[in-house]
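Exercise: predict the fold of this chain.
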Amino acid sequence: MARNSKDMTILERRFVPCGEMIIEEGEIGNNAYLVQSGEVEVFSKANDREIILGKMGPGQIFGEMSLVFDGPRSASVRATEHCNLIVVTRAILTEKIARSDITVRAIVNMLTKRIIEGNNALLNKNDTTDDLQDVVLNLYSNVLETLPARERRIFRSDVLPELNNFLDALSRFKKDHEKDADNSEDAFTL
């Protein structure tokens, strides 16, 4: 089957030697990288310590959030082996999505919208116990939706009771904290 020239997009490739930084946490990015060969590690720094978040090898992509968001990178990535990477830019992704099947476009657009809304919701939270409850319930629902049907029942029976215990403890904390706040306000009003 002959392919037309639109399907023959030549993607930029980049060789990265072992030990070289590819992405720096906090920088603004506008591309992602597909690992063609080699291995990278994703890490973040906290209190002058590196926390390894994961390792990625051939066929895996990193930096993909920059294809959707304009914000700073949330982690750093360095090569732990010599790597050949394929650079994926927003323009390339947009072009590929535009050429894809209408169903694929709809799914990608919906997933992108959900990611943006979810991140915006988390970024706009006030860090209250209600916000924590919302995030926990949303995460539980999202994980449940992604599981194969045969695993959902097991997930519910194993996780839901523990989740309910956590939410009950959170509710008790909130109720006790509100009482303490009311009492301390009364102590200062004469």
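Check your answer against the key: The longest helix spans residues 149-188.
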